[in-house]
């Protein structure tokens, strides 16, 4: 019975301390203290400690450079306090080549290594695969030093087939050739008014031909601008239709009526002209011959 009573009293005390703990304490300031001293002060305040080792240039070796929660805060006893201690160890670049980008970033984050730049490069590797890292794997990083990684992009061009660079200017063509691995070495010039100025109009090898990496390619550049081309009859008609749609049907009708009135007025003047009555009999047999000639000439002018 005595044992049971003693166990009950002791057990109640433990239960109260863990589940109904109302005792409070103030977190001491352990910043810039040695690791062992910081742990000692925190435990004397009734707190638990979790030590996280990391590298920093803010404090000397084995000294606390951060704590959470912040000092001066009032908390319950047995609260876990995190402290960050400078261990002075350099971080080493892990070997992430061949990993998928998401996996590589997760691995780097777990080691507190930050990425400065991500560059993409066409490759036969799977999309978003790590092709390279700088500094190279195994390198010890300086304080706060970041790394750069090279990632595979989708292969856009078949490196064994000559791409179609006709119509490009020389600078754009060189960039495209660089991706395939060929060199534009021989450049010649010609004049072709049917093609745009300063663009490639032919290549050797031609587009679609089999090529090898490092192969030299010849291109011909156009030095003439397109000549002004005369409009065809069909284009003139289509333009007239567009004008009708643009200016409106009513205006087109008014213009047509005016043209008809002017034409009739001209015919009447020709009929009343006294010089026409003085023509010989042949003219009388074909009175419209002169008018037909004038009409034909008018149509020719209009066609031009």
TrEMBL record:
This is PASTA domain-containing protein. SUPFAM superfamilies: Penicillin-binding protein 2x (pbp-2x), c-terminal domain. It comes from Leptotrichia rugosa. It holds the Pfam family PASTA. PROSITE patterns: PASTA (PS51178). It comes from the Bacteria. InterPro entries: PASTA_dom. Gene3D superfamilies: 3.30.10.20. Residues 258-304 are annotated as: Disordered. Residues 21-87, 88-153, 158-223 form the PASTA domain. Residues 261-296 have a biased composition (Low complexity).
